[in-house]
Write a sequence for this structure.
C-alpha cells in the first residue's frame, strides 16, 4: 500500500475529526464512556519510534462510530508524541488511491518511513478491536514487526 508524507498529511487530523464528529450522539458517547484497558494504555505508552496511523472511516458506519473514538481517546489519554493518527473518509475526494478499494473501518499502522507494520480490517475490528490493537502494538514494541501484504 503506497503511503507517503504528502498523502498522509492530506488526511484529516484525528483531533479535527473528533471535533467534527462529537455532534454525533453515539460517537460522542462512545468517546466519553470508553475506559481504555491498562494494557491498551501501556501499549500506546511503549511506542518509542514514530508511528503513522491511517484510519479509513465513514460517518455512517456503526463500527467506525464504535471504534474510531476509542483510537482517538487512546491517543489523547496517553499523549505519546510518537503517535500520529489521520483519518481518511471513504467518501472524501482526497481519499488516497491506496484505500479506494478498502471497506471502512480499516486501520493501517506505518513506521516513520511508511513501511506497513500491521493492519486491522473490518472483520478484525468488529470482533475485539482493543485486544487486537494491543496485541499488534505489543509485537511492534518488541521488534517483531510484520506486514500483511
Amino acid at each position: 500500500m503506497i503511503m507517503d508524507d504528502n498523502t498522509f498529511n492530506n488526511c484529516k487530523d484525528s483531533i479535527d475529526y473528533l471535533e467534527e464528529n462529537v455532534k454525533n450522539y453515539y460517537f460522542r458517547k462512545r468517546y466519553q464512556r470508553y475506559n481504555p484497558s491498562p494494557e491498551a494504555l501501556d501499549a500506546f505508552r511503549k511506542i518509542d519510534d514514530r508511528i503513522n496511523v491511517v484510519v479509513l472511516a465513514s460517518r455512517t458506519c456503526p463500527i467506525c462510530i464504535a471504534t474510531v473514538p476509542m483510537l482517538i481517546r487512546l491517543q489523547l489519554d496517553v499523549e505519546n508524541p510518537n503517535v500520529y493518527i489521520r483519518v481518511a473518509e471513504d467518501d472524501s475526494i482526497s481519499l488516497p488511491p491506496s484505500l479506494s478499494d478498502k471497506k471502512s473501518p480499516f486501520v493501517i499502522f506505518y513506521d516513520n518511513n511508511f513501511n506497513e507494520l500491521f493492519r486491522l480490517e473490518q472483520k478484525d475490528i468488529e470482533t475485539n478491536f482493543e485486544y487486537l490493537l494491543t496485541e499488534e502494538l505489543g509485537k511492534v514494541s518488541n521488534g517483531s514487526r510484520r506486514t500483511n501484504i
